[in-house]
């Protein structure tokens, strides 16, 4: 085993299918840069695992013979990755391991943006642990296994909540259609990036708690069964319409315009606090440029996403920023997690 390994994984932006994906409906998710980077090496006490996040001043150390089930902030996701490894691998890999985690600072915004940092983290750590156990290049050859380990870790750290679509984007990269029905193994279909469409995103200025919003969704659908079924059908149709347009290289912009408002229509009926005043303003500014934008992910804050013609992107970003909404330098990531 050489002294240092590293892994990088992209974050994500949900384009379509949020909330409905939790109930087995399909979603479309884009892997995006900048990436989370994790560096691994061996030093210090042999029976210790060390985790450092220099940007936030986190320095965590634990005895590998009795690792705690959780830890502060992102440390909880790293510990979940360790727990998702087979016991023999844990005994071999963890003693003396030192992990240094580098989260990107996107245009000076240090708050949670909703760009999938935790998914990128579990993808990076899971790939690193796999390579430390099996050798360089093995994570790339066994990405499906890395995905399942990362997904198990992500769900464990979030008390079982989440679809796993964000983890799939971070592991496999690109633009994907993600679906899991009746607890089955997730289906991940790579999609080509839509022709003649550019990606733009803007931050609302308010972090959102995805876990709390998911809880609100589950509470609501128990009381609105018929409306819930209607929502799932409408969401699935919107996703498939957009995916079909992408696959056939037909008019993806028109398909996006038709698909993007579905959750905006149903969220108030399902009593999900999806559209905040700031997000509504971001969407209205885009609409003033004849561009369709929507909240990305669970809403309630975080970021909004727009797909527009490439010649419209610069003016849209300038308008958003001039109106007080930072625009992270986000771009589609063709590759998923990569070890070096």
Description:
There is one protein chain. This protein has 340 residues and is an alpha+beta fold. Helix content is 41%, strand content 22%. It contains 12 helices and 12 strands. The strands form 2 sheets. Strands 1, 2, 3, 4, 5, 6, 7, 11 and 12 form a 9-stranded mixed beta sheet that branches. A 3-stranded antiparallel beta sheet has the order 8-10-9, covered by helices on one side. Helix 8 (225-247) runs antiparallel to helix 9 (252-259) and helix 8 (225-247) packs antiparallel against helix 10. It is globular, with a radius of gyration of 20 Å. The relative contact order is 0.19. The mean pLDDT is 92.
List the helices and strands and how they pair.
Elements lengths: L3 E13 L10 E16 L5 E6 L4 E6 L11 H9 L3 H7 L3 E6 L14 H18 L3 H4 L1 H15 L7 H8 L2 E5 L7 E5 L6 E6 L6 H14 L1 H23 L4 H8 L2 H8 L7 H12 L4 E3 L7 E6 L1 H13 L8 E2 L5 E2 L1
Helix pairs in contact: 1-3, 1-5, 3-5, 3-6, 5-6, 8-9, 8-10
Q: Which features would summarize this protein structure in a list?
A:
alpha+beta; three-stranded antiparallel sheet; 41% helix; single chain; 340 residues; nine-stranded mixed sheet
Short characterization:
With 340 residues, this protein is an alpha+beta fold. 41% of the residues lie in helices and 22% in strands. The longest helix is centred in the C-terminal third of the chain and has 23 residues, at 225-247.
The rough form would be described as: globular
Distance between the termini: 13 Å
User: Would you list the SSEs in sequence order as H and E?
Assistant: EEEEHHEHHHHEEEHHHHHEEHEE
Total strands: the figure is 12
Structural class: alpha+beta
Largest sheet: 9 strands, mixed
What's the rounded overall pLDDT mean? 92
Fraction in beta strands:
15-25%
Unreliable segments of 5+ consecutive residues: none
């Amino acid at each position: 085993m050489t002294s240092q390994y590293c892994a990088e994984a992209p974050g994500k932006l949900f384009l379509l299918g949020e909330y409905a994906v939790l109930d087995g409906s399909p979603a479309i998710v884009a892997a995006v840069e900048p990436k989370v980077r994790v560096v691994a090496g061996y030093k210090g006490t042999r029976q210790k695992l060390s985790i450092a996040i220099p940007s936030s001043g986190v320095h965590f150390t634990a005895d590998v013979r009795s690792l705690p089930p959780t830890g502060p902030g992102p440390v909880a996701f790293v510990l979940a990755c360790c727990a998702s490894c087979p016991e023999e691998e844990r005994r071999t890999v963890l003693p003396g391991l030192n992990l240094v985690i580098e989260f990107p600072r996107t245009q000076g915004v240090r708050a949670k943006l909703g760009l999938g940092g935790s998914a990128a983290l579990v993808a990076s750590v899971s790939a690193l642990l796999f390579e430390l156990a099996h050798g360089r290049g093995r994570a790339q050859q066994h990405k499906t296994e890395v995905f399942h380990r990362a997904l198990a870790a992500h769900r464990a750290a979030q008390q079982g909540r989440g679809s796993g679509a964000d983890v799939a984007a971070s592991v496999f990269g690109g633009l994907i259609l993600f679906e899991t029905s009746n607890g089955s193994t997730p289906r991940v279909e790579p999609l080509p990036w839509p022709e003649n469409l550019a990606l733009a995103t803007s931050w609302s200025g308010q972090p959102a708690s995805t876990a709390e919003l998911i809880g609100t969704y589950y509470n609501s659908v128990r009381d609105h069964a018929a409306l819930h079924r209607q929502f799932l059908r409408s969401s699935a149709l919107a996703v498939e319409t957009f995916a079909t347009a992408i696959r056939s290289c037909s008019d993806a912009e028109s398909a996006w315009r038709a698909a993007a408002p579905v959750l905006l229509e149903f969220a108030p009926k399902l009593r999900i606090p999806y559209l905040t005043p700031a997000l509504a303003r971001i969407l209205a500014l885009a609409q003033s440029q004849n561009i369709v934008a929507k909240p990305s992910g669970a809403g309630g804050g975080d970021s909004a996403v727009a797909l527009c013609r490439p010649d419209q992107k610069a003016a849209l970003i300038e308008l958003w920023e001039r109106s007080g909404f930072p625009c992270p330098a986000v771009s589609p990531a063709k590759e998923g997690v990569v070890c070096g």
